[in-house]
Design a protein that fits this description.
single chain; 124 residues; five-stranded antiparallel sheet; 31% helix
């Protein structure tokens, strides 16, 4: 049975629920291939809502809309949301670390995050 809604559509829905326009980068027809090239994947459709809610509960000092999970560790990437944060800003954290020690890194766009991951060699 085909999925009625994709993970990307759920991510876009999170932006709309916050009254925000989703960044154009998340509107790509398919993020799967670019994410796989850098060792990441979209969170599974079935558990996306619970995953996103748990992530934001674990780190209440920031709001993020996750879009990618590492295939080799607990790193998670998402769109950082908040006042004075430029739209499309990406944050990457080491998920499940104690708040304050999740080692966040930020990037000004999805394309910059992907380029950094490719340059860094986070490939299989």
């Amino acid at each position: 049975m085909p999925l009625l809604i994709t993970t990307q559509q759920m991510i876009i829905g999170n932006f709309k629920e916050l009254g925000l326009a989703p960044p154009t980068s998340i509107l790509m027809p398919d993020l799967t291939e670019p994410l796989e090239r850098v060792g990441y994947a979209l969170p599974s459709h079935e558990s996306y809502r619970a995953f996103a809610n748990a992530l934001n509960a674990r780190y209440p000092d920031r709001k993020m809309i996750p879009f990618a999970q590492s295939l080799s560790n607990d790193d998670t990437a998402g769109f950082l949301i908040g006042k004075n944060i430029p739209p499309g800003t990406i944050i990457e954290i080491h998920n499940f670390a104690s708040p304050g020690s999740e080692a966040p890194a930020t990037y000004d766009s999805l394309s910059h995050w992907l380029a950094h991951k490719q340059k860094k060699g986070d490939l299989f």
